[in-house]
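re the bet — no i am not wrong, look at it urself. input seq straight from the record:
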Amino acid sequence: MTAEVPHKTTSSRATDRPGDTSPFALGLLLRQAHWRAATVMTEALRPLGIELRHFAVLIVLVDRGPTVQRDLVAATGSDKAGIMRIVDDLERKGLAVRRAVPGDRRARAVEITPQGVELFDAAHVAAAPLADRLIADLKPGEAEQLTDLLTRFAYPASGGA
């Protein structure tokens, strides 16, 4: 079975170059911006011995406190096997622990350790100058404007996709 593809030809082909007017342009531009930011933040985390995937879980644990693994899956956009590996890594490094959830013998809540909080804080210190480098070409006030726009884009008031 094949999908019906409209035969209308368009003069706009999807790229991630500035000025692209294709319907995919925004998504491609956001992907490029994500790759750039992720590369810079990976550079900040490398000396601390963790990766972005680890830090994403630490962010959730700092924000929410002890969190069951299935909720970490949803919060990080990972999958069950991926979260298991990340939490295993964090436990080996002494940054998080799994604890039994009262009333549910199967569930385990993941909790950040004091060492994990120290590393979390150190990551912010290490990332600050690199984050400044990310926004170096923006004019005064544009970083705040970009943050506001991306926040509204990522978390629409309408709750829509």
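see?? Residues 25-45 form the longest helix (21 residues). told u. also The mean pLDDT is 89. so pay up
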